[in-house]
Amino acid sequence: MGASNSIEFKNITKRFGRKVANENISFSLNKGEILSLLGENGSGKTTLMNMLAGIYYPDEGEILINGEPVQIRSPKDAFRYNIGMVHQHFKLVDLFTAAENIALGEKGRLDRSRIAAKIREISSKYGFIIDPDKKVYEMSVSEKQTVEIVKVLYRGADVLILDEPTAVLTPQEIGHLFTVLRAMKADGKSIIIITHKLNEVMEISDEVAVLNHGSFIGKVRTSDTDPQKLTEMMVGHKVALEIRRPMPKDPKPRIVVNDLTVRNHEGVNKAHHISFTAYSGEILGIAGIAGSGQKELLEAIAGLQVITAGSIQYLPDGKKPMELVGKTPMQIRQAGVSLAFVPEDRLGMGLVGSMGMSGNMLLRTWRRGKGIFVDEKISRDLAEHIREELDVSTPDIMYPVRRLSGGNVQKVLVGREIASAPSVLMSAYAVRGLDINTSYTIYNLMTEQKEKGVAVLYVGEDLDVLLELCDRILVLCDGHVSGIVDARTSNKNEIGLLMTTIGGQQPSGSVPAGQKSGKEEQQDA
Amino acid sequence: MNGLILLIYNAVLNGAPLMYGTMGEVLTEKSGNLNLGVEGMMYMGGAIGLGAAFYYEKMAGDGASGLVAVLLALIFAFLAGAFGALIYSWVTISLRANQNVTGLALSIFGTGVGQFIGEYMRVQEGGFVAISNGLKAFFQNSPFPAALRAVPVIGQLLFSYNIFVYIALIIAFAMAYFLNKSRAGLHLRAVGESPATADAAGIDIEKYKYLATVIGGGISAIGGMVYIMTIAGCVWNHDGLAGEGWLAVALVIFCLWKPVGAIWGAVLFGALMIMYVRVQIPMVPDQLYKILPYVVTVIVLIAVSLRRKRENEPPASLGLSYFREDR
């Protein structure tokens, strides 16, 4: 093999306390190729790559570069071996300009014009668009990612590691990213992409290495495999990758939002003149770039946001219509509108980490006690019920939910909201960070609710899933309703355009602030 | 007119210890370390700075050089503060202990050490530690020639202060240049903003944190020495320094983590501190005047948070310890 073998892992093991993150992993990366590292969340992909980047140090085993065993003890060492990693959570100093971030860690005098010139050279070589003097906190997500990649190239990396690079990008931005990656590959760079999206694996990579629960399952040429086979490798058994989607039965308007404008705590309007209707018995998906007003919209309906204008009509079955604007969160919840919001850190909103399942149920049932006392039996029964129903694996219902795995935490959260038998169920990022099996459990829960006649509002990140799960998809763009499409006939490209431009038109003068960069990159692609 | 000039003159004089205390803490906080031990370090600097000048004069006798005394006081005060900051650094950076708790402990420890040394010297020397009037002049008089000082208005406003005011100005501008223009300054700010980023860029986090905190602590401690040697009249004074360090911590926020801003802030705070002597309003008790610096700090904090300009916010990782393998 010799020179064609750029990086080789040999029997790598890494433990965190008693938890084994990587066990006896061996495989290699060919020079000038793109390798996808595939695995579910928590399968140890990022840990393994962090060892290559010098963030962690392996407990056992060795890493070989061009056949030579090397010690990578710090990120500095990784640079010396021309390895660069773009982390999932960008490692950028928000307050610095792109150029300052890119040149960070260099030695010698700070010569800004020389740095800018080198950045421009790299940009034109691979087709990046970057303004060296722009501050990072003014950038969109895709611009930040560009800075990260340029930073790695600026440092002279021959081996690039990208950790979930597409998770935060629109389909158009992903297209552009892949174009750039192909240009780098043509230039002789080796690239490792960490991902769990199968269609991207098939599109971009030459080889796929699969991890499962910290162990190496195997490596295959992309041309010799297909998504079904890869999923089986990834999960360890056969999985039906289909989401059941019955037609809505007898849909009736349940929530009518009219001309809603929401202002956040900092006095900035995050949702502008939003109007839509959610029907009973249907799943209404909500798509948009992160931070386009999804959270504010759902919270406004739940009564948690300041509403500056507009109305939210709630039309429950057999009862008289109700205006939700001006009601307290408690009144709205008791009327049957339920919100299950999974924030990025999962526990931040909705669950109390140090309390057990039972205690967290109490957050909803405490009102049902007598007088000044709470009735713990109600919450314990509910916790036991959810544990059985959703197969939550916990040693005890008193066991702190903080110590449960992400999937179980989310089952508790979603389960509690469903248990209140809502007539409107709102959920945001319900499958964030979950493995495939649990994700499909959650999807099926949503569908079950829909069949019961509940109006489900589902904010999701994965457009493929939204297109398979929902009946209609509302696309938000910078706080505006960019369009509402039929999920059965729409496609990713259409939604992607709606996400970046209001109405989905081709770029014109009326591009909303903050989205401009995304457009520029599309034009370039 | 004369009253105003006198007010400004006294404001600068009273602000000088705060300039050092604040600049030192600015440097420390730029590395992401919130060292609440400024009060303690200033006490240590005050007692040990005075001790250095006093024992030097005692040994050298009549031949004592004022310049040497000033230099020794500066160096020993700096070392005293650097020592305190080194303890703090070891506990918070290497052992990753909570910064607030450690800083408060250093405050109490340093105050105790300073008062012990000060009182011990006083008792040893028969109840009174003071340097001779000849040496005092070097600490308290302007380094500029009399002709320059005699220029009306400007002479008093610009050239009449003690040497420490001018040294503070030099440090402020040097620090501003270092932070904003040099590679090392960029790295230091990166460490304070986002240590994980700096680490991934191959910057030695521990080195920058240690150096900034230790040097910053030393600069802060000089403030204590300046207070004892100028305002307090070169005499150990049991409670004279009380509160100076805490004012400096407040000033860091007031000046928005900018060294040159520390100069203006210190002068303003100096003015507020002596208002009750200079601008008396009948029926208003002194105590109300004395809370003015804190009231102004609160007002500035509110104004800054309303504007929400990213450049005016504290270093993003301020108060947090960093461990690379943290999950």
Can you describe what's shown?
With 525 residues, chain A is of the alpha/beta class. Chain A has two domains: 2-235, Rossmann fold, CATH 3.40.50.300; 253-265 and 278-354 and 400-476, P-loop containing nucleotide triphosphate hydrolases (Rossmann fold). Helices cover 33% and strands 25% of the residues of chain A. Chain A has 17 helices and 20 strands. Chain A has helices at residues 45-52, 75-80, 98-102, 112-126, 141-154, 171-186, 198-204, 227-235, 294-302, 329-334, 357-365, 376-390, 406-419, 436-451, 463-469, 492-500, 516-524, and strands spanning 5-16, 19-30, 34-38, 60-65, 68-70, 83-86, 159-163, 190-195, 207-212, 215-221, 253-263, 269-279, 283-287, 306-314, 322-323, 337-341, 424-428, 455-459, 472-477, 480-486. In chain A, the strands form four sheets. A six-stranded mixed sheet of chain A has the order 6-7-8-3-9-10, with helices on both faces. Chain A starts with a strand and ends with a helix. Chain B is mainly alpha-helical and 327 residues long. Chain B is globular and about 60 Å long. The mean pLDDT of chain B is 90. At the A-B interface, helix 2 of A face helix 9 and helix 10 of B.
Keywords:
heterodimer; A: 525 residues; alpha/beta; Rossmann fold; six-stranded mixed beta sheet; disordered C terminus; B: 327 residues; mainly alpha; ABC transporter involved in vitamin B12 uptake, BtuC; 73% helix
Could you provide a short overview of the structure?
Chain A is of the alpha/beta class and 525 residues long.
List the helices and strands and how they pair.
The complex is a heterodimer of chains A (525) and B (327).
Chain A: E1 5-16, E2 19-30, E3 34-38, H1 45-52, E4 60-65, E5 68-70, H2 75-80, E6 83-86, H3 98-102, H4 112-126, H5 141-154, E7 159-163, H6 171-186, E8 190-195, H7 198-204, E9 207-212, E10 215-221, H8 227-235, E11 253-263, E12 269-279, E13 283-287, H9 294-302, E14 306-314, E15 322-323, H10 329-334, E16 337-341, H11 357-365, H12 376-390, H13 406-419, E17 424-428, H14 436-451, E18 455-459, H15 463-469, E19 472-477, E20 480-486, H16 492-500, H17 516-524
Parallel strand pairs in A: 3-8, 3-9, 6-7, 7-8, 13-18, 13-19, 16-17, 17-18
Antiparallel strand pairs in A: 1-2, 1-4, 4-5, 9-10, 11-12, 11-14, 14-15, 19-20
Chain B: H1 2-30, H2 38-60, H3 66-94, H4 99-124, H5 133-140, H6 146-149, H7 154-159, H8 163-181, H9 183-193, H10 195-200, H11 205-231, H12 244-254, H13 259-278, H14 286-290, H15 292-307
